[in-house]
Amino acid sequence: MSIPPSDNTTAIDKLADWIVGLQPEQVPASVQHIAITCLIDTLGVMIAGAASRVAAIARAAAADESGSNSGTCTVFGASRYMVASAAAFANGTAAHALDFDDNCYAGFVHGSAVIAPAALAVAQHIDASGRDLLTAFIVGSECEYAVGAASRSVLYETGWWTTGVLGPIGACAAAAWLLRLNRMQTAAALGLAVAAAGGLKAGFGTDAKALMAGRAAQAGVNAAMLARHGATGPAHAFEHHNGFARLFNQGVFDVNKLDRLGREWSLESPGVDIKRIPVCLSSHAAVDAALELLHENGFSLDEIASITCDVPPIVIANLVYQQPATRQEAQFSMQFAIAISLLYGTLGLEHLNPTALKDERVIGLMQIIDMHQGAQWESRELLAIAPEGAQVVITLKNGRRYERFRAAARGTAADPLSREEIEEKFLRCLAAGERQDGPILLANLHALSMLASCRALVPARGR
């Protein structure tokens, strides 16, 4: 059931008040550091994703929207700048095209892939400083994750794709802060963003998933721009009988979760999970467990009789392709993720291709990998600490059995990657996107708070 606010204010009121009142100096240095890491990771996967077919489609549509307007906003993979809303759409699509972007368990949402493109586009549109871009990204992240926490994961479990539903809220919050909208305009913008939100998990494994991320970024930017010009939005967008809580979330919405904005920081807890490999996060813990068993026990792949993965229901729901036929299906396949990782020691962007899917060694391994949900996942306590965990058992042909439980994957907030690993991923992504200016862009991102103009963030050559 919906939990009423403690002071009779609406969810929009709480969000707008915090957005308008936040000053950059109020953000702890630890939160800024996490945000920089998220931006480095997101721009990296965005640049790699710009080389994908779906990102090219999004750029073509964005170019049509921009028309003859030159714009001031970077679009990765394009030879020209574009207007803010078009750039947010194209870059948001690219950021999620490879499913290599981060995740937050406050709402089970891909946050940065939507918020970062929106914030970058608006920051370049108004020529904001790097400090303002960083703050706006934090504002968008905290607002989106607070709403995610208030939703108590019902959205995702019901079948909505949280990135499409919550993404416009985060993108709008970031844009509203950058545009310095007043209290009334910010509330209107948020109302517009909530009223227009949507996204179905039916799109998983298709172009729709990446395009929905781009659309969410664009929707947030458009909502803020419309409010800037006087448009109004529903003040009770969450609580209305035809609003967010009832229609999207089975009537559940704990508005008091929003009171923690600025007191507790979602970027710190529950934190952000950065992907080590470019497939759905639901497979990562099992992949890590399988690799650990292989490395620690020294058996060969030819000796394996079977691999079984006992996983929670969300993993079963997400990884629906036992015999994937396309790159997008492979990214939602436990069998593919484990088979490639065992064969090559890791799973990289270079493995997401038709050749790998037709490799007889890959096919053979996939056929002996089983995934099921055991009775242990009936425990709410276990689900709380291991929402996408895995119990992996590898049985050899000689009957020997090896077992490993992993509550969280490498790269998650519970087991984070090192700075060196983050930067290595970033540079690999830039190489995949055929850019040679990785060290310059990386240095600019690390020094973002000192950058005078966001238009100088991305080197012009090879944009």
Main β-sheet description:
4 strands, mixed
CATH class of the largest domain: Mainly Alpha
User: Strand order within the widest sheet?
Assistant: 2-1-3-4
Low-confidence stretches: none
Strand portion, in percent?
5-15%
What is the typical, i.e. mean, pLDDT? 94
N-to-C span: 49 Å
CATH superfamily of the largest domain: 2-methylcitrate dehydratase PrpD
CATH architecture of the largest domain: Orthogonal Bundle
For the CA atoms, what is the radius of gyration? 22 Å
| SS content category | mainly alpha
**What is the total domain count?**
2
Describe this structure in words.
Residues 278-431 form the MmgE/PrpD C-terminal domain. It holds the Pfam family MmgE_PrpD_N. This is MmgE/PrpD family protein. With 463 residues, the chain is mostly helical. The chain is globular and about 70 Å long. It has helices at residues 11-21, 29-49, 53-66, 84-97, 112-126, 130-151, 154-158, 162-178, 183-195, 207-228, 244-249, 267-271, 284-297, 313-318, 327-330, 334-344, 354-358, 360-366, 380-385, 419-432, 438-446; strands at 304-310, 369-372, 390-396, 401-406.
Concise description?
It comes from Herbaspirillum lusitanum. 52% of the residues lie in helices and 5% in strands.
Which tags fit this structure?
60s Ribosomal Protein L30, Chain: A; mainly alpha; about 475 residues; 2-methylcitrate dehydratase PrpD; globular
List the helices and strands and how they pair.
Elements (H helix, E strand, L loop, with lengths): L10 H11 L7 H21 L3 H14 L17 H14 L14 H15 L3 H22 L2 H5 L3 H17 L4 H13 L11 H22 L15 H6 L17 H5 L12 H14 L6 E7 L2 H6 L8 H4 L3 H11 L9 H5 L1 H7 L2 E4 L7 H6 L4 E7 L4 E6 L12 H14 L5 H9 L17
Parallel strand pairs: 1-2
Antiparallel strand pairs: 1-3, 3-4
Helix pairs in contact: 1-9, 2-4, 2-6, 2-20, 3-4, 4-5, 4-10, 5-6, 5-8, 5-10, 6-8, 8-9, 8-10, 9-10, 13-16, 16-18
